[in-house]
Amino acid sequence: MLLILENHSSSEVIGSPVMPYFNSLVAQFGLAQNYFANTHPSIGNYFMLTTGQLVTNDNAFAGTVGDDNIVRALASAGKTWKGYFDALPAPGYAGDNAYPYEKRHNPLIFLSDVLGSSAQLANIVPFSQFVSDLQSGSLPDFALVVPSDEHNAHDCPTGGMACPDPDKLAAADSWLSANLDPVIRSAAFAKSIIIVTWDEGNPTDLTNGGGPVATLVIGGGVKRGFRSTAFYQHQSTLRFILDLLKVSDHPGASNGAPAMNEFLQ
Fold first, then answer.
1. Residues 126-146 pLDDT 10s
2. Order of strands across the sheet with 193-198?
3. Strands 227-228, 124-126: pairing kind
4. What is the DSSP letter of 85?
5. Alpha helices in the chain (DSSP H)
6. What's the pTM?
7. Residue 13 to residue 31: CA distance in whole angstroms
8. Is the CATH number of domain 2-263 3.40.30.10?
9. Segments making up each domain of the chain, as ranges
10. 153 and 5 in contact (C-beta within 8 Å)?
11. Coil/strand/helix, residue 2
12. What are the tens digits of pLDDT across the range 194-233?
């Protein structure tokens, strides 16, 4: 499972008093301390996490991506997947923004592999389906989970940007506590790996392209309290997901990216 939050550097969230749940996970599991996003703004980072390429830095991008990608790699290996998007209007929705759902935070919906297949398009679902899939024991091999802009620290919990930043972080922390904790407490957790990252750091921080972001590796088989100082970016997360699922295809820059297996027991 890959869960993506928005637009905060690691120094803004690690130790933050308004994110007690997030920081409880930091204390318990693995933290990549030298992890950086690839670019600004959001969309290029989402594409790096799924295609191993930046593709575009245009948040209004409306094209179709035909390059190798995580969906193609998983399907070729016989693995199942779903994208669970908070506030998505309907299963298989391929339309434009429907606030607080943002299309630019759904890289899967730009892929030719998804748009060209009704079966694959049906794997793009509202987050509400995640709850039923968890309860029925029918989660896919890979799940991409993206909270809406009101829950991912991008916007205020009631919409828009006109609130103090701690309000945005507190709303994201509450969402994580309500929706991630049931996964950690489930029977599926012992055999699962959950990666929580942020698409980009603070937009003013250009270090290594997209600024430092707090990336957690959570799971029953993860070294407890582990801290990595190795340099990673989003292409390593893409490689890690595929390595965990024993998929040999590594799209784009994930082929040759530093491996993250040091987090595993």
1. 999 999 999 999 999 999 999
2. 124-126, 81-85, 142-146, 2-5, 193-198, 215-219, 30-32, 227-228
3. unpaired
4. E
5. 10-13, 20-28, 42-51, 70-76, 112-115, 118-121, 128-135, 165-179, 181-184, 234-244
6. 0.97
7. 12
8. no
9. 2-263
10. yes
11. strand
12. 999 999 999 999 999 999 999 999 999 999 999 999 999 9
